[in-house]
Amino acid sequence: MERYVSSTFQRDDKNEEMKRNHEQMPRTGIETDAIHVGQEPERWPGHAVIPPISMATTFKQLEPGKPLLYEYSRCGNPTRQCLEECLASLEKAKYALTFSSGLGATTTLMFMLKSGDHIVSIDDVYGGTGRLFRRCMAQMGVESSFVDMSMDPSSIVNHLKPTTRLVWIETPTNPLLKLADIELISTLVHKYDPKIMVLVDNTFATSYYQRPLELGADLVLHSLTKYMNGHSDVVMGSLMMNSEELYKQLGFLQYAIGAVPSPFDCYLVNRGLKTLAVRMRQHMTSALLIAKYLEQHKYIERVIYPGLECHPQYELYKKQMSGFSGMISVYLKGDDVEKSKRFLKHLKLFTTAESLGGYESLIELPAIMTHASVPEEHRRQLGITDGLIRMSIGLEDVQDLLDDIEVSLQYAFLNTIEK
Ligand code: P1T
């Protein structure tokens, strides 16, 4: 514990110095920050332009109990620090911490709670997050309420209790792409009790299109596994915050629990961030085109994409986001699982797989894949039916993707008629 305090102090010291350097620079755009913040060549011996990967698990101490900057790699290492600084700058946060997965970040945060505490979560939440709340946290005596925060956000106050410690917002949600008003919910929750933490899972929008801390949230979570890394080759998560107190508490838990990423993975995510802006712009351009195409399609019941005017919360989208990613959800006509499966199996360029946000297009059936752990009745209430398909539009030629979709839809529906 004492050793950790000393390393925290040094980390803060270094952050202060970095912050001072940063303040002297003119205000920069997210594209510039992604490339430069935390990457100053002067930090490394030999002034390497690309941050080196530091694989050391431990660091020589000046004398026993006196580490220089780092002591043991679980507490921090140069590659992880470089990534955490870069991530913080993109989210316009003071601090960022990284973890071995998105759920690793969530689990670490759960250690801020104790038996008897209460979580209010948006109802349409990533299946794994819901499973952690319902199955694991319930076992530890932490109760969760699942609430629709999209249509009537002010009703959030009806779900808060003296024991509520955390309000968990995922916006846009996975897989139904519902939006929650971050500013309004944060204001109402903090008015009820300023100590309740408001967290936004920003995985689907990324720091490029939405910055919840600027809207009043206390914490932002990312599954970096998705768009932020963007190459489907790393599983990692992060938490970002402005409060020094939260940073110190969560920094301690990061170290004490140990769900930390490897330096090699930190290097990869740091590299992925360099193209975040260009990737996100292209994901959005292609997704919007495909969403509009599907909107008119005779075999499609409904298309959900926040950037479409027909999205029920299009006004909120324009207010709190500057764009959206490549995530589209659609209902096939007929709500027939066999038809959905035939469509997915026929696709050549879209790969049927869980996950999202990489340069390659992925597709899945939430009801039997990512959200199979959601209790069936809750799934039905939400609208996660057999006809619901989630697409992650990648960076392939968009006409190729449209052709693949068209041919496969024809195939899925023709076969049904024949049968
Ligand atoms: O997979 P991991 O890095 O642990 O991240 C968990 C997570 C958290 N939040 C959101 C919004 C997510 O979508 C995820 C992971 N989601 C999938 C694997 C998926 O296919 O939806």
UniProtKB/TrEMBL annotation:
Region (Disordered), start-end ranges: 1-28
GO MF, any single term: cystathionine gamma-lyase activity
Assigned EC number: 4.4.1.1
GO biological process entries: cysteine biosynthetic process via cystathionine; transsulfuration
One GO term describing the cellular component: cytoplasm
Gene3D superfamilies (alphabetical): Aspartate Aminotransferase, domain 1, Type I PLP-dependent aspartate aminotransferase-like (Major domain)
EC top class, as a word: lyase
InterPro entries: Cys/Met-Metab_PyrdxlP-dep_enz, Cys_met_metab_PP, PyrdxlP-dep_Trfase, PyrdxlP-dep_Trfase_major, PyrdxlP-dep_Trfase_small
Pathway the protein takes part in: Amino-acid biosynthesis; L-cysteine biosynthesis; L-cysteine from L-homocysteine and L-serine: step 2/2
Keywords: Amino-acid biosynthesis, Cysteine biosynthesis, Pyridoxal phosphate
Cofactor(s) needed by this chain: pyridoxal 5'-phosphate
Database matches in PROSITE patterns: CYS_MET_METAB_PP
Domain of life: Eukaryota
Regions of compositional bias (Basic and acidic residues) in chain numbering: 10-25
Residues recorded with modification N6-(pyridoxal phosphate)lysine: 226
Family membership noted in the UniProt record: Belongs to the trans-sulfuration enzymes family.
Protein name: cystathionine gamma-lyase
